[in-house]
């Protein structure tokens, strides 16, 4: 009878929105169903919450270090992800990390992509290309988000927090994807008198910040 493989699963989300959503439970359910289908046994779960696989080095990720320690001590035979980009998005670092697990006798699997092989140079090239694509997608996502924030500012929509002094928040009539109405900035006329006076002090009198602050006390 074949020995039942011991499996460790790894879940990661990189943003607060994913953390507050249903992303980790989705990854966990998919991985657990995959383990059951293969006839393996789950012995360990690693979870990274709000950790960027693109910005954060492997050396600074505690759960990765725990997974490496446990691998060296024979806790599990298989490391399973929902998708390999949950391990990380750094091209060279992540591909080398996958290979490190392989050198320790750990099989590395993804629910969506199957087992990652390291037998030939072709395997290494395919692995590199996977993380190159993942890294590229991460950069494109960042660009899209930055552009969206710029457009929101241009449209007068406020991205969150308390309105700066001199302004107040009013309803914009724009509904976001979560069904919540966005706010926009409007001038608070009572506070605007003070703001305009501060600008006048700088422009016409040459006041510095300390002198303006003393005047306003």
UniProtKB/TrEMBL annotation:
Residues 6-156 form the Resolvase/invertase-type recombinase catalytic domain. Transmembrane segments: none annotated. InterPro entries: DNA_bind_recomb_sf, Resolv_N, Resolvase-like_N_sf, SSR_resolvase. It comes from the Bacteria. Coiled coil: none annotated. PROSITE patterns: RECOMBINASES_3. Pfam families: Resolvase. SUPFAM superfamilies: Resolvase-like. Signal peptide: none annotated. This is Resolvase/invertase-type recombinase catalytic domain-containing protein. It comes from Saccharibacillus endophyticus. The lineage of its organism: Bacteria, Bacillati, Bacillota, Bacilli, Bacillales.
């Amino acid at each position: 009878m074949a020995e039942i493989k011991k499996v460790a699963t790894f879940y990661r989300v990189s943003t607060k929105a994913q953390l507050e959503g249903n992303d980790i439970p989705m990854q966990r359910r998919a991985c657990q169903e995959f383990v059951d289908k293969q006839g393996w046994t789950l012995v360990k779960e690693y979870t990274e919450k709000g950790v960027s696989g693109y910005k954060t080095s492997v050396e600074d990720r505690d759960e990765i270090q725990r997974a490496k320690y446990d691998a060296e001590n024979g806790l599990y035979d298989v490391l399973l992800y929902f998708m390999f980009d949950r391990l990380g998005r750094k091209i060279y670092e992540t591909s080398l990390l996958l290979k490190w697990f392989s050198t320790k006798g750990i099989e590395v699997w993804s629910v969506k992509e199957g087992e990652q092989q390291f037998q030939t140079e072709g395997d290494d090239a395919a692995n590199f290309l996977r993380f190159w694509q993942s890294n590229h997608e991460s950069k494109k996502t960042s660009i899209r988000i930055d552009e969206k924030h710029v457009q929101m500012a241009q449209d007068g929509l406020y991205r969150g927090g308390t309105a700066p002094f001199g302004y107040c928040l009013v309803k914009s009539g724009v509904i976001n994807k979560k069904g919540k109405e966005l706010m926009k900035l409007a001038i608070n006329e009572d506070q605007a008198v003070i703001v305009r006076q501060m600008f006048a002090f700088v422009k016409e009198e040459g006041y510095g910040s300390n002198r303006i602050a003393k005047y306003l006390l």
